[in-house]
Specification:
Structural Genomics Hypothetical 15.5 Kd Protein In mrcA-pckA Intergenic Region, Chain A; 2 domains; 10 strands; 37% helix; single chain; 326 residues; elongated; alpha+beta; 9 helices; eight-stranded mixed β-sheet
């Protein structure tokens, strides 16, 4: 069994999971998506072109929407299966874990464009339009809808990304009389799941990440990123995908009353949190050295359970004990 066969064998279970959980009529659309993607990127050779962001972007937001006929619900699972593809490439020792995380993050950044174009006929080829019309009429006896062997890919010009030249100084202070009161909501749930925290000023986004992991019961085993104004991304420097290093950027750069900052954990499950700065305490009576969970509502879902959630109970006293140790 060659590498490509092993790769598809590993992915079969994920495809069947989406087929069953998503209620898809058949898994063929997911299989064709992976075949098209691999064939377009490097003719199925599993080469370093799979890591070339310019080629990946071209496949993801241009050629897949233009040529690959999928229903809207299939398009969402097609996006998920492309993330799983890079997991499989990593587990088959074809790419490194760092490359896996970087490409998953890159695909996530293009998610909205991909799904928009997959559902908008203005971006479809005439052949795809004709096929989708036939499908709507109930005629599924059509020929292979794509022919990737016709694509001729010149070696793309490498994009040059600017270095992160802004360096934010670390605070040498161990205590501060300034603090922030924030409410953090795990988005998408009713009744809502949220935590109200008092956190010291002068801490880095890296420490804020660890605080959020504690109060929501996450296990810190997936990628994460903060987004300021939905533009600037802040995350681990070693990931190579964030604009600013979470170890170097302090929350004081962005925290003002009324400011909202997004925190995304796990680019596959997409646990989205919204941080609302409710109050800035300029002069506490006592130095603030650690975060405190003032109030908490809602049990949190278990790791990797998006779509089929299992729930974890929490104890406020235990949360605050762990925050003191953080």
């Amino acid at each position: 069994m060659d590498k490509l066969d092993k790769l598809f064998d590993r992915m079969t279970r994920d495809m069947l999971h989406y087929f069953i959980a998503g209620g898809l009529a058949e898994p063929d659309g997911l299989i064709r998506t992976v075949e098209f993607y691999l064939s377009f990127v490097d003719k199925g050779k599993l080469s370093e072109k799979l890591l070339d962001k310019q080629i990946v972007e071209d496949a993801l937001i241009h050629h897949l929407p233009k040529h690959m006929p999928l229903y809207i619900d299939e398009s969402f699972y097609a996006y998920q299966i492309l993330l799983d593809l890079y997991n499989a490439l990593y587990h088959e020792n074809i790419i490194s874990q760092e490359d896996c995380k970087e490409l998953q993050f890159f695909i996530y950044l293009n998610k909205r464009t991909f799904l928009t174009r997959m559902s908008n006929p203005n971006f479809w080829s005439k052949t795809k339009l004709a096929i989708m019309d036939e499908w709507r009429e109930g005629n599924f006896e059509i020929e292979d809808p794509y022919n990737v062997t016709d694509y001729k890919l010149d070696k793309p010009t490498k994009k040059v990304y600017p270095d992160n030249i802004l360096q934010f100084p670390k605070s040498n202070k161990q205590t501060t009389l300034k603090s922030y009161v924030v409410r953090v909501d795990l988005k998408g749930y009713k009744p809502p799941i949220w935590r109200r925290l008092k956190i010291p000023a002068g801490i880095s986004y890296g420490r804020l990440h660890r605080i959020l992991q504690v109060v929501f019961g996450w296990e810190d085993c997936h990628l994460h990123s903060f987004f300021v104004d939905r533009k600037e991304s802040i995350g681990p420097k070693e990931s190579g995908v964030a604009e600013f290093s979470e170890a170097e950027r302090l929350i004081d750069e962005d925290f003002r009353e009324g400011v909202k900052i997004d925190y995304l954990y796990d680019f596959s499950c997409e646990w989205e949190h919204q941080i609302l700065v409710e109050k800035v305490n300029q002069a506490e009576l006592e130095p603030v050295t650690f975060a405190v969970c003032l109030k908490a509502k809602g049990t949190t879902p278990a790791e990797d359970s998006k779509g089929h959630e299992s729930w974890k109970n929490f104890d406020l006293l235990d949360l605050n004990k762990r925050l003191r140790e953080e």
